Amino acid sequence: MRLLDVELRRALSRRAVRGLIGLCMLGIVIGAVIAFFVSKPAFDQASALSRATAARQADMTRCTSGSDGPTPPPGMDRTEYCDQFFPPVSQYVSDKRFHMERLWGPRDPVLAGLSPILLIGALIAGATALGAEWRHGTIATLLTWEPRRLRVMAAKLAAVALAAFVIGVLLQAFLVLALLPAGMARGTTDGMTAVWWRGLAGGVLRIGLMTSAAAVFSACVASVGRNTAAAIGVAFGYLIVVENAVRGLRPQWQRWLVGNNGATLVLGKKVQIAHAKGMMGASVILGVYLAVIVAVAVTSFVRRDVT
Q: DSSP class of residue 198?
Protein backbone atom coordinates (compact mmCIF):
# COMPACT_ATOMS: atom_id res chain seq x y z
CA MET A 1 0.00 0.00 0.00
CA ARG A 2 2.88 2.35 0.71
CA LEU A 3 4.27 1.85 -2.80
CA LEU A 4 0.83 2.46 -4.32
CA ASP A 5 0.47 5.65 -2.29
CA VAL A 6 3.87 6.84 -3.52
CA GLU A 7 2.96 6.13 -7.15
CA LEU A 8 -0.38 7.91 -6.81
CA ARG A 9 1.31 10.99 -5.43
CA ARG A 10 3.91 10.84 -8.18
CA ALA A 11 1.27 10.56 -10.91
CA LEU A 12 -0.89 13.38 -9.57
CA SER A 13 2.08 15.69 -9.03
CA ARG A 14 3.05 15.77 -12.69
CA ARG A 15 2.55 19.13 -14.37
CA ALA A 16 1.21 17.48 -17.51
CA VAL A 17 -1.57 15.81 -15.53
CA ARG A 18 -2.48 18.98 -13.66
CA GLY A 19 -2.37 20.97 -16.88
CA LEU A 20 -4.71 18.54 -18.66
CA ILE A 21 -7.15 18.65 -15.74
CA GLY A 22 -7.05 22.45 -15.74
CA LEU A 23 -7.67 22.64 -19.50
CA CYS A 24 -10.60 20.26 -19.25
CA MET A 25 -12.14 22.23 -16.38
CA LEU A 26 -11.67 25.48 -18.30
CA GLY A 27 -13.37 23.98 -21.35
CA ILE A 28 -16.28 22.78 -19.21
CA VAL A 29 -16.73 26.23 -17.66
CA ILE A 30 -16.68 27.93 -21.07
CA GLY A 31 -19.18 25.43 -22.45
CA ALA A 32 -21.47 25.87 -19.43
CA VAL A 33 -21.40 29.67 -19.78
CA ILE A 34 -22.25 29.40 -23.48
CA ALA A 35 -25.10 26.97 -22.72
CA PHE A 36 -26.46 29.39 -20.12
CA PHE A 37 -26.59 32.41 -22.41
CA VAL A 38 -27.72 30.54 -25.53
CA SER A 39 -30.66 28.92 -23.71
CA LYS A 40 -34.03 30.69 -23.53
CA PRO A 41 -35.95 30.44 -20.25
CA ALA A 42 -39.41 30.96 -21.77
CA PHE A 43 -41.18 28.38 -23.92
CA ASP A 44 -44.72 28.76 -25.28
CA GLN A 45 -45.66 25.28 -26.40
CA ALA A 46 -48.78 26.35 -28.29
CA SER A 47 -47.04 28.95 -30.44
CA ALA A 48 -44.00 26.70 -30.96
CA LEU A 49 -46.27 23.88 -32.12
CA SER A 50 -48.09 26.28 -34.43
CA ARG A 51 -44.81 27.42 -36.02
CA ALA A 52 -43.65 23.81 -36.34
CA THR A 53 -46.88 22.80 -38.05
CA ALA A 54 -46.57 25.70 -40.49
CA ALA A 55 -42.94 24.83 -41.25
CA ARG A 56 -43.76 21.19 -41.97
CA GLN A 57 -46.73 22.16 -44.09
CA ALA A 58 -44.50 24.46 -46.15
CA ASP A 59 -42.07 21.58 -46.73
CA MET A 60 -44.96 19.32 -47.70
CA THR A 61 -46.34 21.91 -50.13
CA ARG A 62 -43.01 22.29 -51.93
CA CYS A 63 -42.53 18.54 -52.03
CA THR A 64 -46.00 17.64 -53.33
CA SER A 65 -45.88 20.36 -55.98
CA GLY A 66 -42.61 18.95 -57.28
CA SER A 67 -40.79 22.30 -56.99
CA ASP A 68 -38.47 21.03 -54.27
CA GLY A 69 -37.77 17.92 -52.26
CA PRO A 70 -37.23 14.25 -53.07
CA THR A 71 -38.58 12.36 -56.03
CA PRO A 72 -40.83 9.42 -55.09
CA PRO A 73 -40.10 5.96 -56.52
CA PRO A 74 -42.17 4.83 -59.49
CA GLY A 75 -45.70 3.81 -58.60
CA MET A 76 -45.78 5.58 -55.23
CA ASP A 77 -48.09 8.51 -54.54
CA ARG A 78 -46.11 11.73 -54.16
CA THR A 79 -48.13 13.00 -51.18
CA GLU A 80 -47.73 9.73 -49.31
CA TYR A 81 -43.99 9.66 -50.03
CA CYS A 82 -43.48 13.26 -48.91
CA ASP A 83 -45.38 12.60 -45.69
CA GLN A 84 -43.05 9.67 -44.94
CA PHE A 85 -39.94 11.60 -45.95
CA PHE A 86 -40.35 14.55 -43.58
CA PRO A 87 -40.14 14.04 -39.80
CA PRO A 88 -43.21 14.48 -37.57
CA VAL A 89 -44.25 17.91 -36.35
CA SER A 90 -42.73 17.28 -32.91
CA GLN A 91 -39.26 17.32 -34.45
CA TYR A 92 -39.91 20.73 -35.98
CA VAL A 93 -40.58 22.26 -32.56
CA SER A 94 -37.76 24.58 -31.54
CA ASP A 95 -37.33 24.47 -27.78
CA LYS A 96 -34.43 26.74 -26.78
CA ARG A 97 -34.53 25.75 -23.12
CA PHE A 98 -31.61 23.77 -21.75
CA HIS A 99 -32.82 20.28 -20.93
CA MET A 100 -30.87 18.68 -18.09
CA GLU A 101 -32.15 15.35 -19.36
CA ARG A 102 -29.79 15.74 -22.32
CA LEU A 103 -26.85 15.03 -20.03
CA TRP A 104 -27.75 11.39 -20.55
CA GLY A 105 -30.60 11.39 -23.03
CA PRO A 106 -31.49 8.83 -25.68
CA ARG A 107 -29.90 10.93 -28.43
CA ASP A 108 -26.42 12.49 -28.28
CA PRO A 109 -25.94 12.61 -24.48
CA VAL A 110 -23.71 15.46 -23.34
CA LEU A 111 -21.55 13.23 -21.13
CA ALA A 112 -20.88 10.89 -24.04
CA GLY A 113 -19.61 13.94 -25.93
CA LEU A 114 -17.17 14.62 -23.10
CA SER A 115 -15.76 11.07 -23.22
CA PRO A 116 -13.43 11.60 -26.25
CA ILE A 117 -11.81 14.53 -24.45
CA LEU A 118 -11.31 12.43 -21.32
CA LEU A 119 -9.88 9.56 -23.35
CA ILE A 120 -7.41 11.81 -25.18
CA GLY A 121 -6.31 13.33 -21.88
CA ALA A 122 -5.97 9.85 -20.36
CA LEU A 123 -3.81 8.66 -23.27
CA ILE A 124 -1.47 11.63 -22.87
CA ALA A 125 -1.35 11.48 -19.07
CA GLY A 126 -0.85 7.72 -18.99
CA ALA A 127 2.02 7.98 -21.44
CA THR A 128 3.76 10.64 -19.35
CA ALA A 129 3.32 8.60 -16.18
CA LEU A 130 5.84 5.97 -17.28
CA GLY A 131 7.48 7.52 -20.31
CA ALA A 132 8.86 10.45 -18.32
CA GLU A 133 10.39 8.10 -15.74
CA TRP A 134 12.25 6.19 -18.41
CA ARG A 135 13.40 9.41 -20.01
CA HIS A 136 14.77 10.86 -16.77
CA GLY A 137 16.21 7.58 -15.53
CA THR A 138 14.25 7.46 -12.29
CA ILE A 139 13.17 3.85 -12.89
CA ALA A 140 16.67 2.56 -12.06
CA THR A 141 16.75 4.66 -8.90
CA LEU A 142 13.36 3.34 -7.82
CA LEU A 143 14.47 -0.26 -8.32
CA THR A 144 17.36 0.22 -5.92
CA TRP A 145 14.80 1.02 -3.24
CA GLU A 146 12.25 -1.63 -4.30
CA PRO A 147 13.95 -4.36 -6.39
CA ARG A 148 10.80 -6.47 -6.88
CA ARG A 149 9.97 -5.38 -10.41
CA LEU A 150 6.59 -7.10 -10.64
CA ARG A 151 5.44 -5.28 -7.52
CA VAL A 152 6.74 -1.97 -8.85
CA MET A 153 4.98 -2.34 -12.19
CA ALA A 154 1.75 -3.45 -10.55
CA ALA A 155 1.81 -0.40 -8.29
CA LYS A 156 2.48 1.95 -11.19
CA LEU A 157 -0.32 0.57 -13.37
CA ALA A 158 -2.73 0.45 -10.43
CA ALA A 159 -1.93 4.08 -9.61
CA VAL A 160 -2.47 5.13 -13.23
CA ALA A 161 -5.77 3.21 -13.42
CA LEU A 162 -7.11 4.53 -10.12
CA ALA A 163 -6.08 8.14 -10.75
CA ALA A 164 -7.57 8.15 -14.26
CA PHE A 165 -10.84 6.63 -13.06
CA VAL A 166 -11.28 9.08 -10.19
CA ILE A 167 -10.32 12.08 -12.32
CA GLY A 168 -12.69 10.98 -15.09
CA VAL A 169 -15.62 10.58 -12.68
CA LEU A 170 -14.90 13.89 -10.93
CA LEU A 171 -14.66 15.81 -14.20
CA GLN A 172 -18.02 14.40 -15.27
CA ALA A 173 -19.50 15.44 -11.94
CA PHE A 174 -18.00 18.90 -12.45
CA LEU A 175 -19.70 19.09 -15.86
CA VAL A 176 -23.07 18.22 -14.33
CA LEU A 177 -22.63 20.88 -11.63
CA ALA A 178 -21.46 23.47 -14.17
CA LEU A 179 -24.60 22.95 -16.27
CA LEU A 180 -26.99 23.12 -13.32
CA PRO A 181 -27.42 26.94 -13.52
CA ALA A 182 -28.47 26.63 -17.18
CA GLY A 183 -30.90 23.85 -16.37
CA MET A 184 -32.39 25.46 -13.28
CA ALA A 185 -32.61 29.09 -14.41
CA ARG A 186 -32.93 28.85 -18.19
CA GLY A 187 -34.11 25.31 -18.81
CA THR A 188 -36.03 22.37 -17.44
CA THR A 189 -35.39 19.28 -15.35
CA ASP A 190 -38.26 17.32 -16.90
CA GLY A 191 -37.40 13.68 -17.50
CA MET A 192 -34.89 13.38 -14.64
CA THR A 193 -36.60 10.35 -13.14
CA ALA A 194 -35.11 7.59 -10.99
CA VAL A 195 -34.53 5.54 -14.14
CA TRP A 196 -32.71 8.49 -15.72
CA TRP A 197 -30.47 8.90 -12.67
CA ARG A 198 -29.56 5.21 -12.78
CA GLY A 199 -28.71 5.54 -16.45
CA LEU A 200 -26.59 8.61 -15.72
CA ALA A 201 -24.71 6.84 -12.93
CA GLY A 202 -24.03 3.86 -15.16
CA GLY A 203 -22.80 6.10 -17.96
CA VAL A 204 -20.47 8.01 -15.61
CA LEU A 205 -18.96 4.78 -14.31
CA ARG A 206 -18.49 3.30 -17.78
CA ILE A 207 -16.82 6.46 -19.07
CA GLY A 208 -14.61 6.43 -15.97
CA LEU A 209 -13.61 2.84 -16.71
CA MET A 210 -12.83 3.68 -20.33
CA THR A 211 -10.72 6.63 -19.17
CA SER A 212 -8.85 4.32 -16.79
CA ALA A 213 -8.30 1.71 -19.51
CA ALA A 214 -6.98 4.34 -21.95
CA ALA A 215 -4.47 5.60 -19.37
CA VAL A 216 -3.26 2.06 -18.58
CA PHE A 217 -2.91 1.27 -22.28
CA SER A 218 -0.72 4.29 -23.02
CA ALA A 219 1.30 3.72 -19.85
CA CYS A 220 2.02 0.16 -20.98
CA VAL A 221 3.06 1.26 -24.48
CA ALA A 222 5.27 3.98 -22.97
CA SER A 223 6.90 1.39 -20.71
CA VAL A 224 7.62 -0.97 -23.60
CA GLY A 225 8.87 1.84 -25.84
CA ARG A 226 10.50 3.69 -22.91
CA ASN A 227 9.27 6.93 -24.41
CA THR A 228 6.23 9.19 -23.98
CA ALA A 229 6.07 10.21 -27.63
CA ALA A 230 6.11 6.58 -28.74
CA ALA A 231 3.02 5.79 -26.70
CA ILE A 232 1.12 8.84 -27.92
CA GLY A 233 2.15 8.17 -31.53
CA VAL A 234 1.11 4.50 -31.39
CA ALA A 235 -2.24 5.30 -29.75
CA PHE A 236 -3.30 8.06 -32.11
CA GLY A 237 -1.78 6.36 -35.16
CA TYR A 238 -3.79 3.22 -34.49
CA LEU A 239 -7.08 4.99 -33.71
CA ILE A 240 -6.90 7.48 -36.57
CA VAL A 241 -5.10 5.58 -39.35
CA VAL A 242 -5.48 1.85 -38.75
CA GLU A 243 -9.08 1.77 -37.55
CA ASN A 244 -10.33 4.12 -40.28
CA ALA A 245 -8.52 2.01 -42.88
CA VAL A 246 -10.19 -1.12 -41.55
CA ARG A 247 -13.62 0.56 -41.61
CA GLY A 248 -13.11 1.47 -45.26
CA LEU A 249 -11.48 -1.73 -46.51
CA ARG A 250 -12.96 -4.42 -44.27
CA PRO A 251 -16.27 -3.21 -42.80
CA GLN A 252 -17.05 -6.68 -41.46
CA TRP A 253 -14.05 -6.40 -39.13
CA GLN A 254 -15.49 -3.38 -37.32
CA ARG A 255 -16.83 -5.60 -34.56
CA TRP A 256 -13.23 -6.08 -33.37
CA LEU A 257 -12.17 -2.42 -33.40
CA VAL A 258 -11.39 -0.56 -30.19
CA GLY A 259 -13.29 2.56 -31.25
CA ASN A 260 -16.53 0.76 -32.07
CA ASN A 261 -16.48 -1.39 -28.95
CA GLY A 262 -15.52 1.61 -26.85
CA ALA A 263 -18.54 3.53 -28.16
CA THR A 264 -20.78 0.57 -27.29
CA LEU A 265 -19.39 0.44 -23.76
CA VAL A 266 -19.74 4.19 -23.21
CA LEU A 267 -23.34 4.35 -24.46
CA GLY A 268 -24.33 1.09 -22.81
CA LYS A 269 -25.97 -0.21 -25.98
CA LYS A 270 -25.04 -1.59 -29.37
CA VAL A 271 -23.95 1.08 -31.85
CA GLN A 272 -25.91 1.29 -35.10
CA ILE A 273 -23.41 -0.34 -37.45
CA ALA A 274 -23.28 -3.69 -39.17
CA HIS A 275 -21.69 -6.58 -37.26
CA ALA A 276 -21.63 -4.58 -34.00
CA LYS A 277 -21.15 -6.35 -30.68
CA GLY A 278 -23.43 -5.89 -27.68
CA MET A 279 -22.20 -4.32 -24.46
CA MET A 280 -21.10 -7.63 -22.94
CA GLY A 281 -19.23 -8.65 -26.08
CA ALA A 282 -17.59 -5.22 -26.35
CA SER A 283 -16.51 -5.37 -22.70
CA VAL A 284 -14.92 -8.79 -23.20
CA ILE A 285 -13.07 -7.72 -26.34
CA LEU A 286 -11.68 -4.56 -24.76
CA GLY A 287 -10.75 -6.47 -21.61
CA VAL A 288 -8.81 -9.05 -23.62
CA TYR A 289 -6.98 -6.35 -25.60
CA LEU A 290 -6.00 -4.53 -22.41
CA ALA A 291 -4.91 -7.74 -20.68
CA VAL A 292 -2.60 -8.57 -23.59
CA ILE A 293 -1.02 -5.10 -23.55
CA VAL A 294 -0.54 -5.25 -19.78
CA ALA A 295 1.03 -8.72 -20.01
CA VAL A 296 3.48 -7.55 -22.67
CA ALA A 297 4.43 -4.45 -20.66
CA VAL A 298 4.88 -6.36 -17.40
CA THR A 299 6.96 -9.08 -19.08
CA SER A 300 9.14 -6.47 -20.76
CA PHE A 301 9.64 -4.55 -17.51
CA VAL A 302 10.53 -7.66 -15.51
CA ARG A 303 12.98 -9.17 -18.00
CA ARG A 304 14.68 -6.24 -19.74
CA ASP A 305 17.67 -4.32 -18.51
CA VAL A 306 16.65 -0.92 -17.17
CA THR A 307 19.96 0.80 -17.87
A: H
